[in-house]
Fold these 2 entries.
Entry 1:
Amino acid sequence: MAAYTKQDVISALADPVLHRITILFDGLLINGAGFVMVQNEIIAGNIEVVQGSSSANAYYHSGDDTLTTQDGPSPAPYWKKSLLIHECVHALIDIYKYTTTGLTNELLCYITQVAYEIMSDSAYRYSLNTSLPAGSNDAKWNQFWVAIENYVRGLGYSFSTTGE
Ligand SMILES: [Zn+2]
């Protein structure tokens, strides 16, 4: 497998599910129009898409407006697109020059990522894995994902969310 290309990111941003997302946080709006902006910046080459070498991680670098993609099958399934969209939220925050802490910036990306995932598949669930060693990084990540999903569902997002 090869890493996702500029075209894969543009395709992920064309997913109509993104137009059902409206997350307003302290003056920052994450919605379909924002994703169109990111898409336009990528098409114009103002945000450069670089093919990375990791199967698990993608990155957005605000310093040089570069999005580095992860590895995966093309066309990307929604659960691979969700990580590209996470990075595109970082890009959107950068485009808006919205200033916040690194942690809040990251949380907004995870919240959007999980909203997109649960709207894309009625069966999508993060479940608590109690067999992971207590206190381990894996256990903490597992608890984190479950908490984000609970939060996102609490905002009203589900497979049947229709948006505006
Ligand atoms: Zn991130």
Entry 2:
Amino acid sequence: MDDAVRNYKYRRATRLRSRYDSDDGGKWVTTKKKHRVHLNEEGMPDKGNPHVIDFIEDKALDNELKRIVGLGHEKVLVYDQNGKLAFSKDGEKHGVKLSSEETKMLKNLTMIHNHPEQVGFSLEDISLFVNKGLKKLEVVLPDGEVQSISKLQGEEQNQDGFFKAWFGVDVNTDEFEDYYCAVLRNAGIDPDAYEWTEKESKEGDRIFERCVREFQARWAEQNADHYGYRFTRRKIK
Ligand SMILES: [Zn+2]
């Protein structure tokens, strides 16, 4: 490359960078893996490679998720676009009731919560996520699994289509049957028993729900992007 061209490109890059730097209180940093990322005033990444940004955001959220994993009741934490805590709320064993003021402010915010039992996203979770236009919703399960659903940046969201498809995931399949029976056996319940005790049948219902949610999650991992969303899982330690 010609020196003049190189110099020009260097000056241009410096100029652009200083302009970015001057319009807010943030700064450009180089990560350990040598990626350039811009951090806003709150220290949250807002410019740079989207995958790198996702990774940094996940790491920041993991620290918050660690505070609520394994609680005996549900707890919700909501963060604004700068990664600052907007509000938090404690709920019951099965759910947190949000006021209408609270639900109104959820658009494009990030919400995390825990489930006291080993079950993934509920229909209420997905409904809240699509209808209130959250940017990201995460749930941490007792074993440290984190399920994460978010809007795909730069894509249009098909809210109704996504909700209907999630709700309608087909569990009348051999694959589901096999999975459900295996989980039952694991819990000491014989799926082929002529009759279940009252205790077994209660447990069986819980396991069924858990398996359905697992299959909905598997479906979303493969298909959420068709609706403008992204579904991922990770594990916190
Ligand atoms: Zn939930």
